[in-house]
Design a protein that fits this description.
The complex is a heterodimer of chains A (about 110) and B (about 110). With about 110 residues, chain A is mainly β. Helix content of chain A is about 0%, strand content about 60%. In chain B, strands 2, 4, 5, 6, 9, 10 and 11 form a seven-stranded mixed β-sheet that branches. The mean pLDDT of chain B is about 95. Classes of the chains: A mainly beta (about 110), B mainly beta (about 110).
């Protein structure tokens, strides 16, 4: 079955540094991979989507890479701020002819210290 | 505000009971998804509906069922509830784009 691995240990960094989160997957070749942010007790919020034929995608301080050979995506937040503290989820975008589902990893908690 | 509305926000019920969770998708979105998130667990995909039809199923228990109505709102029915069913239940919707928009969830506590 498909497996998505995100580092279960929290990532603790100093404000201003770059946070890098990893998402590894097995047994599937998604056409798309998505990243979401989730704050405690709230629903996930979409951040970025990257297609299998894209190596890198940027949005403001966020950058996502997608290596389909390594089956890995990296999510970077540059110039991190305490407000970036949250859990970040990667999701495999699994599309069939008439179905579509997002399968989520368990997320990595990011803590940015002032 | 994602535009997805879930009711109720909180629900406390006893084991063996049946509850219904409701979701109103964003205006115009035809797809609705249900997810379960237990304490300190990831989001587990339950089921997807598209324009009233079931399109994809995850590890949804037989005690759980869902439907999407002609006005596109969706309901998730949970029956014979067990303590282990206590969780946050999220609904999400999507339209032409790939991204999903999540509601704020219903927190179900089974006592």
């Amino acid at each position: 079955s498909q497996k998505i691995e995100q580092n279960s240990e929290a990532l603790n960094i100093q404000e201003g540094k770059t946070a890098t989160l990893t998402c590894n997957y097995t047994n599937y070749s998604p056409a798309y991979l998505q990243w979401y942010r989730q704050d405690p007790g709230r629903g996930p919020v979409f951040l970025l989507l990257i297609r299998e034929n894209e190596k890198e995608k940027r949005k403001e301080r966020l950058k996502v890479t997608f290596d389909t050979t390594l089956k890995q995506s990296l999510f970077h937040i540059t110039a991190s701020q305490p407000a970036d503290s949250a859990t970040y989820l990667c999701a495999l975008d699994m599309r069939g002819d008439s179905s579509y589902k997002l399968i989520f990893g368990s997320g990595t908690r990011l803590l940015v210290r002032p | 505000d994602s535009g997805v509305t879930q009711t109720p926000k909180h629900l406390i019920t006893a084991t063996g009971q049946r509850v219904t969770l409701r979701c109103s998708p964003r205006s115009g979105d035809l797809s609705v998804y249900w997810y379960q998130q237990s304490l300190d667990q990831g989001l587990q995909f339950l089921i997807q509906y598209y324009n009233g039809e079931e399109r994809a199923k995850g590890n949804i228990l037989e005690r759980f069922s869902a439907q999407q109505f002609p006005d596109l709102h969706s309901e998730l029915n949970l029956s014979s509830l067990e303590l282990g069913d206590s969780a946050l239940y999220f609904c999400a919707s999507s339209g032409q784009g790939a991204e999903a928009f999540f509601g704020q969830g219903t927190r179900l506590t089974v006592v």
